[in-house]
Each structure stands twice: as C-alpha cells, then as structure tokens.
Amino acid sequence: MNIKIFPFSLLQGLLLTPLAFNATAQGTPVSAPAALTVDLAKPTKPMQPLWAYFGYDEPNYTYMTDGPKLLSELAALCPVPVYVRAHNLLTTGDGTAALKWGSTNMYTEDKKGRPVYDWTIADRIFDTYVSRGMKPIAQFSFMPEALSTHPAPYRHHWAPGRPYDEIYTGWAYPPNDYNKWGELAYQWVKHCVARYGEAEVKTWRWELWNEPNIGYWQGTPEEYNKLYDYTEAAVHRALPAAMLGGPETTGPRWNKAADYLRGFLQHCVSGTNYVTGKTGTRLDYISFHAKGAPKVVDGHVRMNMGVQLEDVAEGFKIVASFPTLRQLPIILGENDPEGCAACGVQTNPENAYRNGTMYSSYTAASYARLYELADQYQVNLEGAVSWSFEFENQPWFAGFRDLATHGVDKPVLNVFRMLGMMSGQRVPVVNPTALTLPDIFGQAQTQRADVGGLATVAPGGRSATVLVWNYHNDDLPAAPADVALTLQGITAQQALLQHYRIDQEHSNSYAAWLAMSSPQQVSAVQRRTLEQAGQLALLTSPSWISTRNGQAVLHFALPRQGVSLLRLSW
Q: What is the pTM of this model?
C-alpha cells in the first residue's frame, strides 16, 4: 500500500519535520515532501471542461473497426458534451482511409459544371457523433477536387518517414469559384439542420480550414480572409445562430504565424468584407494551435512543454490586444506535445513518449497550466483539442499519438478520465515548490521534477477532487516524489477517499503488453487482460479518513511520470 492517511492532530507535528516520513513503500529515500495545500472553502472560478475536445486527420476512422468504441468511451468521460474535430470533411474521394487522409465526396460536378452534393459519408460520420451525444467541430476542409484551382495531383499517398510536404496536394488550394464554395457551405449547414434539427446544430462549432499559415493552405492570407467571408455569409444565411470560428493557425510564437493570426483578427474587426463590401466580418470564436517540441538527447526523450505553453501565451496575448474580441470564446484547435500524430516511433524516435506514462503526466501538467494562462491574460478559454484518436490497421503500440491501439486504451486516456471527474469550482493549490510559468518557459522541467496539483470542489461543497502529477521533461528513471497533501474546508468529521493512479503498475496497458513480451499477434485472453489494464484503476480500496477542524493530510509516494486523482466525498 502506497498511501498513509492520518488525522490532522497526528500530522500537525509530523509536517514540521517532513523527513520523518520521507521513504516510499519500496524503502527508497526521496527528498522532502512536496507540500500541497488545498482550501476547499475558497472556490474561485468554474472548472471549464477544457479537456473534452478531441481531433484527428482521418475522418473515415470514425465508423471503422475501433473508432466507434473509442468515441463511446470519450463520450462517457464527463457529464458535459465532448467535442470532436476532424479534417478532410469536404475532400473528394471514395471514403478510403489512410494516414493523414480521408474523404466524403461531398461535392462533385456534372459534365456541365453543375454542383452535385452527396451527404452519405459525412452523415455517417456525424451520425456516429450525434448518436453518442457528442458535438462536431464541423470543419470546412478541404477543397473539393472540382473546386480546386490546382486539382492535380489530388490524392496523396504519404507514409511516415516521407517528407511532410508531400501531403499538400490539390485539396490545399483556393477555390476556382468563391460563389460555388459559399453555396457548398450553405447547402451543408442547411442539410445538417434538416437532418439533426436546428436546436442540435446550434450547439455545434463550425470552423474554416486548418493551419492556413503553413502548407495546408496554398493561398495567400488575403485569399484565406476572402474564403472566410464567403463561408461566414453562407453559414449564417443557413443558420443565423451557428457558431463559426477561425483561423486555426499554428505556432503563434513564430513571428509569421503571429502576423497571420493578428491579420485575420484585424480583418474581422476592421477589414473590408469580400462579400458585403462593408467593414468587418462576424466571428463567433477564435482558434489557434499550440505544439511542444520533443527531441532525443543522449539516448532518451526530452520533452519541451515550454514552447507549447509559449504558443498559448502568445496567442492569448494577440487575442487580448483586440478589445472587441478578447471575450470571445477561444478553442485551442490542437494542443499537443508535438506536431505529427501520424508519425510513429519507428520513424520519429522522439515520439517514444506516447505509449507510456510520460504522455499522461505531460498532459496533466500542461492542461492544468491552461487555466493559469487564461486567468493571466483574462481571456475566455472554452476548450483545448487533444489531436489524438486511433489509427486503424497499424501495429500494436506503434507510437502514434493516439488514445488507444487496436481498441485497447493507452495510459494517456486515463488522464482524460481523471479530468472528467473534476467539476464545479476550481480551488487554489498552494505549493511552495511548484514550478511557475516563467520556470517552465525557461526549461526548469528539465532541471527538476514538476510536482503540482489542480483541485476542484463540486456544487454544494460535499465532494472534491485533486489531480496531482510528478512530471519531468527527461524520460529517465528517478525516485518517487513524496507528497504531503493538506486538505482544508471539509465540512464533516469523515470523508470517503478514492485514490486513482496512473503509473507503471496501474492504468497502464502498455506496461501489461511489454510484460507479455510485446506480441503483435494478441490472443483473446491477452486482449481481455490488456483491455482491463487500460482502464482507470484505484491505487487502494476506497477508505474513510478522519478530519479535525475540517482538515486532513494525505501522505503518499508518486512515481516519476505518475498521476494521481484523489476524490473525496462527505
């Protein structure tokens, strides 16, 4: 058992001499405890479910072998709706899936150049979402072959290890007729309203394109702004209450990317509308991307959360500079440790973090900092999309940025399960040794462990959750952290504790697969074992803890790259 629980009367003296309890259950000495204090009587702001957003390039995976199972699991993460963002929803093709490719064949033209609309595949995708209570972030992308100014070559056949620029084919170009593009957007929204109902579609998010500041858009920024104006006019003609956003640029910390985001926002505020000729264009929410930058150093993976959070900070700073826009919702359209979900570990060894618990602890630590950044810049952060789903017909644990492999959940998915248990109001976590945002920007996570927490108290004040992580940029073994968690404001003499854990022994299908000698041919018995190992697990059986004057202290060892969720009710 790795957790010790004492009433405050006993621990009051022990915390003055923390080295008295500085050994783990394995007997390995560790440093003085990380002392975290949470006062549940002092809630601050609502716990916005930023984590309830996911995305992927390959929309046809949605309804293939393992996609529906994973979507059902994502839909069950938390009581609020989960949003799903996918590329290639307008791409021409027969629906065959491949890495960084997909198609719906929504738009073609007859021999006379007249539009032919076919909603069959798109409906199959959206039916899968809506039937689970999920909400699409419906993306107007990419350019149908019949509308592209440079249609050939159109279908790419990219594979990991190949130059990334190979994917930018005919679908990435502006339309040869902006009126036809606008009519396509109008007809699609109109069709969705007819199929799913206006009340449902009003709850969706619509967006234009993906990362137009890099190769995904082979037009100019001005042509993107023009495309947005035509899309906006069409969407709101079909459904005035629709929520449409953009520009989904990536890397705001880059000067050119910052200029692109700033230029788009300026166009929406004071530019000349390409459709109406008037000043400005309606914008319902703002979206941009944030990415980290792992690398291999001396034979091990070293992450770089700092640059990802710098992207977030720079994007927030740009939004906050527009007085009329700063309170619009912001969705981080992709919020990830690096930029290529379909690049596995075989071709990109820096992505070896993805299968095990390093991805889990990174996710916990980085998502927690999003709240801090939104508070700092006083912006309205609505969600942050984890660009991770699943990849069909690939080797087991191939190191793609995914949440499951062959229908078996990976450790990172259990962080989202933990986050899904957190609701109500945020509560400050006082932690004298916590890394600050400037520390992280300065790569302090490479010098010392980032042991921190995020806490909430539920409505009514009768339950609370505390997420605690032990993260480090370097994927190297280290002694566990000793955590002393002081909980204040418990309005009962006893509280029921449930302690969930992700580490090498808990909630970890990858460790279970390695213990099987990494089979690529998995038997039915092995699959059941892996599926069970992939579920979120309790560290110990639920137990009652005593409090004194509304306070208790939990003392536990947290392994490097481990994550704990402590759930209390009284």
A: 0.94
